[in-house]
Amino acid sequence: MIRSLILKVAKLKFQVRNLFAPLILLLLSGLILFSCSQPQPLIILMTDFGEKDFYIGAIKGAIYKVNPNARIDYISNYISKFNVEEGAYTLLKSAVEYPAGTIFVVVVDPGVGTKRKPIAVKTNDGKIYIGPDNGIFSLVIEKFGLAAIFEISNPDVMQKDKMSSTFHGRDIFGPAGAHLSRGVPIEQLGGVLADYVRFDSEKARIVDGKVVGKIVVVDDYGNVISNIQKSLFEELAWSLGGPLKVKVGSREFSVEFVKAYGDVPTGGYLGLFGSGEVFEVAINQGNLSKALNLKSGERIEISK
Amino acid sequence: MIRSLILKVAKLKFQVRNLFAPLILLLLSGLILFSCSQPQPLIILMTDFGEKDFYIGAIKGAIYKVNPNARIDYISNYISKFNVEEGAYTLLKSAVEYPAGTIFVVVVDPGVGTKRKPIAVKTNDGKIYIGPDNGIFSLVIEKFGLAAIFEISNPDVMQKDKMSSTFHGRDIFGPAGAHLSRGVPIEQLGGVLADYVRFDSEKARIVDGKVVGKIVVVDDYGNVISNIQKSLFEELAWSLGGPLKVKVGSREFSVEFVKAYGDVPTGGYLGLFGSGEVFEVAINQGNLSKALNLKSGERIEISK
Amino acid sequence: MIRSLILKVAKLKFQVRNLFAPLILLLLSGLILFSCSQPQPLIILMTDFGEKDFYIGAIKGAIYKVNPNARIDYISNYISKFNVEEGAYTLLKSAVEYPAGTIFVVVVDPGVGTKRKPIAVKTNDGKIYIGPDNGIFSLVIEKFGLAAIFEISNPDVMQKDKMSSTFHGRDIFGPAGAHLSRGVPIEQLGGVLADYVRFDSEKARIVDGKVVGKIVVVDDYGNVISNIQKSLFEELAWSLGGPLKVKVGSREFSVEFVKAYGDVPTGGYLGLFGSGEVFEVAINQGNLSKALNLKSGERIEISK
User: Which residue among B32, B52, B111 sits closest to A36, beta carbon to beta carbon?
Assistant: First the structure.
């Protein structure tokens, strides 16, 4: 009896111990698989730096120094210099595509070193935007909804030893983004802000049966992109197919209202609601902006 | 006897159980090591978008949205706009370097939104090319051999909710590439195609003892790169060292036939078989294209 | 007695075996966690290739072919063509930001295919620089200290089958960097070199109470960046706030000596010690280089 009892106890111990190993095993494996399959959050740059200087190299280095595993990519380093409104538009149209958790580091920053604040913005779709408080985030906040804004003031998330007055991309925005990508909670960047700078952007509207808007950007093809939404066309019951008259300052021309650039012959003038979901005018396989010297910021008028 | 039998059975059970843990262990470890060491296949972009707009930002976002672990890099976003032939050449000379399994997403797409098909091409060296069926893949197919072509028609691999007629890079090509990178078999993109669009590219040839070809591309240094293969020089028994006469339209000049740019003095005219394995003419540390106004597409004649 | 002895031995065996599994477990887990958390070393490109051609696509492909897990990023592909001194400056100001272990592949290489040597440089801060021995690494070696230089001569780390005389970025530098990133020791690239090429760069200095230097680079904003260090200003006891006179050739102008671009009104002329820690002159939100036609390489004189 006693011997068999000892035996039973031994077997029980054995079972407990033998269960222990697989349990740790499963836990560890789960942990490892999880940490392996969890991608680093993306850090996405957008700047007006151009790419000939050391600036984008330095900002990326400053990120990798904080998080050697960082996954960095970029939208553009060729935002027109100091053009916050163009930057806000380009950011909006790109950011919408990225997965939740993406951290955008945005440096179009004419006020660097002055009183404008470095901020981190969280939107309701779970993305984070880091950059200067100069209006550059107006459009993404308007579109995706504001969750919270923080002023970046914690020296531990900056390059405090070499802080410059001219390159906060390298010294504040990049490092702050890198710390977030390592799991630092956004609340640790600094205090909550109640408000943020926005720029006054006149909306396009209908005036005397014409649609009046603004050229927001001329793209690299020379396509001329306005701030005119489809709803204004719908209000006027304008539908695909007919010609439209376009007036920009003293330049007047006619475009075919179509769906795709290739819907008119090569060299033909056209207007369409493009991938940015706003009205643009273009020459099929040509450069309209150069042909007629159309510039961003100009007033544009569309009529039947 | 009975007791010792029980003991033996207990020990046997123990051994079986005790083997169980290490076995799972090894399997799981193998699995984890495998999944950790297996890199994500590369997704390599080539476009004529330029980099000032939201376009490359959006296409990359559309890829990351489908596969947050995607590894994206690029060949160029500065293919001359709508220049399918230049794009085909640049793709050929880059793609050859990449490992099997690489997925190229190529957007030089003047016909976007018209009837040209979105396709995925598999070549015999195990690489995949995604883009418009407009001839852009002619040269890689010719060089590496065609395994299969599929029309991309499965809405599940597209951004079906926001499909535009102007930006299939974002709405079809990028997402399709991202799905492939997650392991979706290429057969699931759509039906097999029997043929593909190719462009007629006249080969360089020998005419009256001269080599006659075409300028395929002017590179960023101003070097003038032709479609002339070494075999034509060999046929004429032209060897390194002597001067050669070059004629492009009304411009005639002489070059030294050498191996390296630095084989002539700074400012000297030279011709060589460059890294693209075709004949090019250049000025050492100068810009030949600007100096003589030579353009891609022009006829070029070489003689002794 | 014998039976209980057998039992004890069985239990002992059991304990030993049962310890075995967790031990392997811990070792393997450690190994896996280590290999998962150890990032691939970064391979950082800097070239004067521009981005319109197949060149950066090919160099990256040549790296990925050797190491499909490679993590490649870049400082700039727009160093002024053949401008080794500008490249050395841009490299210095970027490289300082990167973590130890980073491998820089640098191709500003007017002498490609001639006798200039391909080299790999290790600096005392644990970074590696690969490129031509033409002076491009002078400034990082001076700043971070030389650990060792190797001539790259081992054909196993090159693309020996397709070695060109015109594109060592693709055929030597890229592959060599890729092999290092896979753990090949730098000693295996080739023999140790005793010295390296450096360029003579006149230091800025004080002459008759004026600071005399050189324009090292004009950045993408048109800011004019000199080689003048802060110490020279300190020697002359020049402090923030006053106006300074600037003379470049026949052009003379006055700047406000400030901390940030925004410290003068938009369009105002200013001088500051910028993020590169050297003196630069600029127009707030303007392009000084264009306004006064100032070029890199010109002599610049600053006085009170």
Answer: B32
